[in-house]
């Protein structure tokens, strides 16, 4: 422990702590008001089941029996468990044990705490590789990524895989100077494998980096060099750890593992509205992930990340073990996987969250490299603009309240620009908190049967989660349109029938709507009594 | 100043300008409201329409669809514009983004009807320049009965119910018929050869001809299907059409008049998966 802090001065420690506390506060503040995503029901149910497993079987022999495993680990067995274990941890500790958080917030907080840990890794990596100021800017670039911020506040897997992928790369990179981190590489990779299927792709940039960095050694001593401690650790630890962490694979291992891989290789297409066209199968064109990234990354982060490779002092690259090369490679591979592989693509930037920690590192370094040699600002204040650069994105984030999946940058023209250029203004079948509040008032003294279109089926389970946690009054009853008192139309062109539903709704009585930056996300109609 | 510091100074200046521009853009564009109402001058021109389709040029105008139910607006996104390709005459309400008649069909002629405060109303028409009114644009005025329910169904929440099942309804909808994309009246026939009777009221234009179009959408094509029979009546006049799967067919209703109601009956031998649509086109006589 003493070694751990030996190289860490008080300024660094306090700054990192302050950033971590600030980020945690932002993640937790108003977290009740973050919408429920359509997949939360799978992960929340699985997390609660995992919690019950640990709570009930207490590591007895019975824990390892097939019947017990099947009972508790069957739920959502198409995804590995790490993110759901984080959720289960939060649920067990903050809801079941301390009872200080309701069920929804407790299930989410594990991911948010992990987000703070990831932020510290980003800070540490950037500080060690580049500089203290670069680390501060990288942290701010990461905190103020609105869509990533949203993913860090909900009970889903996408943020977790961004975190475990980055930590794996961090361990690998530090492994060149520390045996501890070299051995931790295998552990981190094992956990990344146990998070989501896109984690293994991170091996590719790591291998390319290794060959660039160690090329002269490989030529001289190929066998010894290739078996670097990081790779040995990965070979020895990662796969066993992956299997160990996922009890579902303890029985019928081969069949269940094959079924897991098959589920993802044959993943059904999910609809996406992109540049005025509806895609599902076939998936959106190759450029869609890149364009979505360009339109939804704050301008300053986008600009400084593009600038970094131009103004970065490449001649010093070997001094930090090719950290910039590694960051660029990791960022590129994270997004390229979705651009150039025949994988399904949908839901904005959700599926390539591992890209963003690396983008933050590059952007932070870009801001630092730009400001450190600036001559028109007094020396004492030369890094001050670096903070001011984030004001536009902060203003946008405040304006969107907690609905940051509707964020588009100024280049895109905000949510309004997304609508103008026919991109999705929202997705993920979100059950908005404001909608919950509306129905709580409307249905205070009467039962309300509520129908949703164009994709109503997702709102039934989401309303169930909200009712169980006490967010939504029991008087709210999900219904089909024929029996409904209220009809919620979510404005989403990805559903082919949406224009017709909108036209058919024109004679209905509009009673409420949620709007972001002049664009309606949903409209509630009060229906005529039959 | 070294070359390096020049590059960094330039980048920093650009970043500052970018930040200021981003803030300006946020307060001037992001937070500005989108139109809820149509300007009076445009509204006056739209008031004289009889349900002709009006296509919006930008999704930012979509609020107008709900705020102006009296106008046959088509929202700007998705497949909406495909409807225009099958319309001989329609209008475009333009703001934010340009949409020309020729973007939809090169052969179409264009005429600016009104222009004010960023809004432009254009008329698009084929060479005949004849107004066409679609029965689907005033579905709420139709009367619907079935063999089981002689009391006319109420038009509630955008549809007439023709039975207890979810699919037993009459409403407007869009579908593909071969390569054609159309918005029309969706009227899924009832089982057991039961008839749906739809009375379409007269239109207040002087009509030169009426055309009945009908078809089974591509989604309803299957082997061994039975055609849907749609019959139009007016006094002693009668015209019967048998639907074809995945195809939209049109027949003129000779001697039918627009100043009297047209009665339509729909039935089939086997109602499974009959994604049936129909529409009446009333062509206005030259003034």
How much β-strand is present in the residues of chain B?
35-45%
Helicity of chain A, as a percent range? 55-70%
N- to C-terminal distance of chain B: 78 Å
Helix count from the secondary structure assignment of chain B: 5
Please tell me what the overall shape of chain A is.
Answer: globular
How can the largest sheet of chain A be summarized? 5 strands, mixed
The structure class of chain A reads: alpha/beta
Global morphology of chain B = elongated
Number of domains of chain B: 2
Distance between the termini of chain A: 71 Å
Task: Provide the succession of SSEs of chain B.
Answer: HHEHEHEHEEEEEEEEEEEEEEE
How big a fraction of the residues of chain A is strand? 5-15%
- According to CATH, what is the class of the largest domain in chain B? Mainly Beta
Q: What structural class should be given to the helix and strand makeup of chain B?
A: alpha+beta
CATH architecture level-2 label of the largest domain in chain B = Sandwich
Tally of structural domains of chain A? 2
Write down the overall mean pLDDT of chain A.
94
Number of helices of chain A: 25
> Roughly how many Å is the radius of gyration of chain A?
24 Å
The total strand number of chain A stands at 7
């Amino acid at each position: 422990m003493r070694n751990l802090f030996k190289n860490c001065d008080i300024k660094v420690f306090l700054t990192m702590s302050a950033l971590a506390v600030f980020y945690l506060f932002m993640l937790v503040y108003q977290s009740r008001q973050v919408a429920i995503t359509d997949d939360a029901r799978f992960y929340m149910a699985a997390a609660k089941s995992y919690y019950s497993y640990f709570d009930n079987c207490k590591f007895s022999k019975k824990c390892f029996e097939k019947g017990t495993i099947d009972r508790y680990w069957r739920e959502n067995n198409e995804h590995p468990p790490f993110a759901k274990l984080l959720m289960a941890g939060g649920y067990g500790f903050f809801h079941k044990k301390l009872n200080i958080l309701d069920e929804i917030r407790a299930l989410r907080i594990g991911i948010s705490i992990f987000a703070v840990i990831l932020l510290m890794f980003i800070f540490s990596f950037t500080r060690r590789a580049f500089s203290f100021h670069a680390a501060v800017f990288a942290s701010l670039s990461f905190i103020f990524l609105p869509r990533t911020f949203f993913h860090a506040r909900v009970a889903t897997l996408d943020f977790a895989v961004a975190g475990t992928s980055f930590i794996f790369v961090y361990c690998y990179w530090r492994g060149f100077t520390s045996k501890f981190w070299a051995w931790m590489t295998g552990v981190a990779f094992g956990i990344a494998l146990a998070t989501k299927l896109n984690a293994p792709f991170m091996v590719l940039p790591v291998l390319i980096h290794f060959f660039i960095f160690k090329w002269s050694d490989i030529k001289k001593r190929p066998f010894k060099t290739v078996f670097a401690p990081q790779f040995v650790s990965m070979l020895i630890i990662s796969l066993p750890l992956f299997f160990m962490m996922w009890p579902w694979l303890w029985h019928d291992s081969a069949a269940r593992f094959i079924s897991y891989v098959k589920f993802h290789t044959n993943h059904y297409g999910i609809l996406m509205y992109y540049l005025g066209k509806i895609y599902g199968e076939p998936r959106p064109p190759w450029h869609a992930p890149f364009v979505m990234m360009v339109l939804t990354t704050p301008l300053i982060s986008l600009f400084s990340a593009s600038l970094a490779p131009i103004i970065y002092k490449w001649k010093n690259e070997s001094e930090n073990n090719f950290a910039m090369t590694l960051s660029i490679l990791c960022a590129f591979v994270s997004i390229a996987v979705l651009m150039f592989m025949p994988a399904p693509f949908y839901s904005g930037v959700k599926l390539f969250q591992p890209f963003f920690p690396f983008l933050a590192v590059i952007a932070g370094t870009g801001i630092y490299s730009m400001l450190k040699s600036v001559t028109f600002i007094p020396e004492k204040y030369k890094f001050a603009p670096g903070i001011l650069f984030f004001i536009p994105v902060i203003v946008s984030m405040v304006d969107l309240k907690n609905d940051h999946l509707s964020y588009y940058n100024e280049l895109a023209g905000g949510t309004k620009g997304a609508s103008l250029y026919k991109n999705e203004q929202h997705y993920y079948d979100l059950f908005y908190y404001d909608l919950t509040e509306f129905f709580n008032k409307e249905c205070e003294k009467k039962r309300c049967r509520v129908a949703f279109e164009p994709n109503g089926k997702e709102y039934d389970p989401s309303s169930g989660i909200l009712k169980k946690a006490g967010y939504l009054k029991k008087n709210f009853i999900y219904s089909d349109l024929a029996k409904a008192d209220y009809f919620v139309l979510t404005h989403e062109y990805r559903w082919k029938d949406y224009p017709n539903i909108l036209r058919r709704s024109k004679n209905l009585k509009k009673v409420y709507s949620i709007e972001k930056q002049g664009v309606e996300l949903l409209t509630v109609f009060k229906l005529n009594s039959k | 100043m070294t070359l390096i510091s020049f590059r960094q100074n330039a980048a920093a200046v650009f970043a500052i300008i970018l930040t200021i521009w981003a803030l300006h853009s946020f307060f001037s564009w992001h937070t500005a409201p989108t139109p809820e109402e149509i300007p009076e001058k445009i509204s006056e021109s739209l008031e004289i329409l009889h349900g002709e389709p009006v296509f919006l040029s930008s999704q930012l105008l979509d609020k107008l669809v709900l705020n102006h139910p009296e106008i046959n607006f088509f929202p700007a996104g998705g497949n909406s514009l495909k409807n225009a390709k099958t319309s001989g005459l329609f209008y475009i309400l333009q703001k934010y983004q340009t949409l020309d008649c020729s973007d939809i069909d090169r052969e179409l002629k264009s005429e600016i009807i009104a222009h004010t405060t960023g809004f432009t109303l254009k008329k698009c028409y084929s060479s005949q320049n004849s107004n066409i009114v679609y029965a689907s644009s005033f579905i709420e005025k139709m009367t619907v009965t079935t063999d089981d329910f002689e009391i006319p169904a109420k038009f509630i929440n955008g549809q007439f119910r023709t039975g207890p099942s979810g699919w037993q309804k009459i409403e407007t909808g869009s579908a593909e018929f071969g390569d054609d994309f159309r918005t029309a009246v969706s009227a899924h026939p009832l089982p057991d050869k039961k008839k749906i009777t739809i009375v379409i009221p007269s239109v207040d234009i002087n009509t030169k001809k009426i055309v009945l179009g009908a078809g089974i959408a591509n989604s309803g094509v299957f082997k061994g299907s039975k055609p849907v029979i749609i019959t139009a009546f007016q006094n002693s006049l009668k015209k019967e059409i048998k639907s074809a799967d995945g195809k939209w067919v049109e027949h003129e209703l000779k001697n039918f008049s627009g100043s009297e109601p047209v009665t339509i009956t729909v039935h089939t031998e086997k109602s499974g998966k009959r994604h049936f649509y129909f529409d009446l086109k009333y062509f206005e006589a030259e003034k």
